[in-house]
Design brief:
mainly alpha; Arc Repressor Mutant, subunit A; 10 helices; 0% strand; DNA-binding transcription factor activity; WH-like_DNA-bd_sf
């Protein structure tokens, strides 16, 4: 099978092919497709454990084929990464979250959001997952997911640009002039 043939296969077909033949080229193609967005997501969620979480994820994928249960592999990968990040967060709940000083202002704002809002924003914006899939990952209703998304976006915009400007109050200005 040529490299061009690998590119034409879906993620799920590539995964099946890898697990049936153990052809490392098939795995490399899968890895290349998803490594960047998974890494960016993990680093923005919890930079201290990103590398460890991804190593566990990819090693698990190499060893045991996942039960996709009708899901796309991309969705399954983010569900697994999310579970691993939650496990690490529960284990390290006592440790205070540190934001390294060299981070961009946007990343600092993202890091200050509550975990659920940060996760929903990153999965939808950075990883381009639909909100329905994000709601499935978070195990919440689509309506609650949309509310968290809106609230997180507002908090991030306020962090980046300051509070929303209020319109002039004409009555207050007229009262001062008299």
């Amino acid at each position: 099978m040529s490299r061009k043939d690998y590119r034409q296969l879906s993620d799920e077909s590539l995964l099946d092919y890898y697990h049936s033949t153990r052809n490392i080229k098939a795995f490399r193609e899968l890895y290349a497709r998803h490594k960047d967005c998974l890494y960016r997501y993990c680093v923005q969620m919890d930079p201290a454990v990103a590398n460890e979480v991804l190593e566990i994820l990819w090693n698990g994928l190499l060893e045991h084929p996942p039960q996709l249960s009708g899901r796309l592999l991309r969705s399954w990968l983010f569900i697994q990464v999310n579970k691993l990040l939650r496990n690490h967060a529960c284990q390290n709940a006592q440790a205070p979250r540190r934001v390294p000083p060299a981070q961009s202002r946007a990343l600092q704002g993202i890091q200050q959001l509550p975990r659920i809002e940060r996760n929903i924003l990153l999965l939808h914006i950075e990883c381009a997952l639909p909100l329905a899939t994000v709601a499935d990952i978070e195990r919440i209703s689509l309506k609650r997911c949309k509310e968290h998304y809106r609230r997180g976006k507002e908090k991030l915009e306020e962090f980046l640009y300051g509070p929303q400007r209020q319109p002039w109050r004409l009555k207050a200005v007229e009262g001062v002039a008299q």
